Amino acid sequence: MHPSYFYLATILLPFLATVVALLAGGRLRLACVWGSRLLLGALMLGGGLYKLSDNHLPGLMGPPMDHAFLARHQLELFARFIGMAQLLIGLLLLTGRFALLGALLLVPMWLNIIFLTWSQNWLGTPLLTTGFLVLTVGLLLHDYQRLKLLFYPPQQTEELRALPLRTAGLGPEIFWWLALGITLGGALLYPISLGVMVGVMALGGVLLLVGTWWSWRRSRP
Prior knowledge:
This protein is mainly alpha-helical. It has two domains: 3-158, no CATH class; 164-221. It has helices at residues 3-24, 26-52, 67-72, 76-93, 99-119, 125-142, 144-151, 158-162, 170-186, 194-219. Helix 2 (26-52) packs across helix 6 (125-142) and helix 4 (76-93) runs antiparallel to helix 5.
């Protein structure tokens, strides 16, 4: 297969899958939404960990940029910032509660990657990333009923203030945010050692799972 056909398919297939799923609704739509969240979340987690670990933790996302390349262009600090942003976006996408926020943040991230790789004349990467951008737009369209308030705020804001907040209670909330802080903080510990970084992040990940389960139990009727 010619490379141009492959990269064209990476845009057309996500587009067709998104359109069909949104129009069909039901289980097919939910399967597409959750599949997109898992895929994009895994890509972001892998890309973030790759940058934050000095390229020692490989992920699904490429192409690789080692620190020698980044140092030549004075981009090491920028890469670390992008790595933290990707890690945060990946974690948000993998939650049901904050998935919309993750999808919103993912749009400028994909645009940043597209134009960065395009300006560096990298073949294929801008087109492949465009396919991921299409999936992200599909996630935003799925949550249009929530997202529309940003573009068309109601004139009577009292109704919004009266809506109950989606919370599992003070205990689970504090526990979950603390676990998220441990996970993100652990990602910055590579200068100490890779083992410390992985260990603290693993602890934070376990605590996040526990916090998610606790919140789910508390939110059940």
